[in-house]
Amino acid sequence: MRALYKFDFIDKTAFVKYTRESCWVLRGLVCLGGLLFVWNAGLFAQRMVPDAPVSNFKIPVFGDDGYKIWDLRGKEGRYVNDQQIVVEGMELRVFSGDEAMHLEVTMESPQATIFIQDQRAVGNDLLFIRGPNFHIVGKGWLWNGKEKLIRIEDDVQVTFKESLGNAF
Fold it and tell me: Which of 116, 108, 91, 102 is nearest to 68 (CA)?
């Protein structure tokens, strides 16, 4: 069996002279190492799934034009699957989605299930909604950001801050 490499010592410095066989072996080892690296990277590139809740988080969501359309904050978030997050202490703020970045409404609930890709949220607990001239409180709710719809099923209370002027 031949040696894969040879050493020549010149001025106490080692230089490697590669033979033809050693070049092919080295190329094979480099290719094998590259394949192992790609295979391992593929394993690690799979989605990491958190096994513990995330605390005090914020997720901004932007429209196609780059303006923020809403953001989600929570005291604690638990990953359910790629589409679903359960949030404790939810605060969801909806913006105008244009360069004015006007805050249209703020929604808070003790617990909610968020579907980020669908821009939806649902909850059975109380929902507190604050707008520029109103407050709404109720239970059993649904928010659909794409349709700009908020539905509250039970115990709804609405308070307007707008004066009626000389209407009566």
Answer: 102
Q: From CA 112, how far away is CA 141, in angstroms rounded?
A: 9
CATH number for the domain running over 54-160: 2.60.450.10
Q: Each residue of 52-97: pLDDT tens digit?
A: 788 999 999 999 999 999 999 999 999 888 889 999 999 999 999 8
Break the chain into its structural domains and give their ranges.
Answer: 5-45, 54-160
Residue 110 phi, psi (nearest 5): -60, -35
Letter string b/e over residues 42-60, b meaning 16 or more CB atoms within 10 A of that residue's CB: eeeeeeeeeeeeeeeeebe
Find residue 168's DSSP bridge partners. Answer: none
**Listed residue (113, 102, 108, 105) closest to 138, CA to CA:** 108
